Amino acid sequence: MMDVQEVAKKYGEYQVKMRRYFHENPELSEKEFNTSKVVKEELDKIGVPWVPCGLKTGVLATIKGKKPGKTILLRGDMDALSVTEDTGLAFTSKNPGVMHACGHDCHISMMLTAAHILNDMKDELCGTVKMAFQPAEEVATGAPSMVEQGALDGVDGCFAMHVWFDVDAGHISCDAGPRMGGANKFVINITGKGGHAAEPQECVDAAVVQAAVVNNLQTVVSRHFSPMDPVVLTIGEVSAGERWNVVPEKARLAGTTRYFKKEINTELPKVIDKIAQDTAAAFGAKAETENIVLCPPVINDEHMAQVVREASRKVIGEDAPVSRPGTMGGEDFAFFMDKVPGAVALLGIRNEACGAVYAQHSCHYTVDENALLGGAMLYAQTALDFNAGK
Description:
Elements: H1 4-8, H2 12-24, H3 33-45, E1 50-52, E2 59-64, E3 67-77, H4 104-120, E4 126-134, H5 142-148, E5 157-168, E6 172-173, E7 177-180, E8 182-191, E9 195-196, H6 206-217, H7 219-224, E10 231-240, E11 246-247, E12 250-259, H8 262-282, E13 286-295, E14 298-300, H9 302-315, H10 334-337, E15 342-350, H11 372-387
Parallel strand pairs: 3-4, 3-5, 5-15
Antiparallel strand pairs: 1-2, 2-4, 6-15, 7-14, 8-12, 8-13, 9-11, 10-12
């Protein structure tokens, strides 16, 4: 009987080679054309069938086992970020201003390595494994597109990983319950009355209104929601005015909200809109708000999380599972998990010895590559165990 660790031994170099290729050749969200092409070529080499699925670049591969069983979907996202790399690595990004600063290069290579492992183990595999090479996670359009195009047809459960800077290499975090925050973007446009800076009494200063709105929005978390329910409101963009001696007529601010409970998200836009409108009205101005739902929260299914933890003990080490607090970082894999039971695991890649200590999205971000084969094995072992009904 074949063993995942035994099969994986011959793919260690392949894992690193592919990770470095994708790191050198990053592509932005919804533009992963070369990445998608290479993924398809690699699948073709081992005879794993695939179909286009998800926007213009998504790929859905299928591996069918020789034994009856369930169907699981594994996900690896492919997009990079608008970040100028400053790592000094020999395989630094060749695309100026674009970098795999969130580790998606690791996800693609781990998925391809897992495809090799599972393809070699088809005789041991129960049921079917769908492998979603997903575009556009960073802008949260890839997962809903794959779902709309049928990626979850016939699927019983789903699993994704994210390499994570705050978990030590050789460990994973996959607790049940809330793990990653739901994410919204909001925009507030303020309209006052412009005029000469020397005659402010004739104007309604949109910049002053904006400042008051920013201040008043700080009460959303502290006064509108229970301190027992984590909520984040951050304003990241503030703009007003075009000239130093002109009272601005218009101002704009934009930010994000994060939350774990879905019912909180029903109230957040209403509270933000009311505060913005009422504050603006007090100054004789108007405020219009727009709320954009980016992705729901990631809530790990208890059974799937348990399957993943047990699988990690088999292929990474008995002490592999560790508990970590959830994060308010968003993850559009939640769109898959809204439809079928699923889990997201944080795969540790932190190792001070090789400089892998920087947070996701940092221009210095790097990983302990020695941890990545463990991630590929975890994809494979989770699929084997879940499909067999363990």
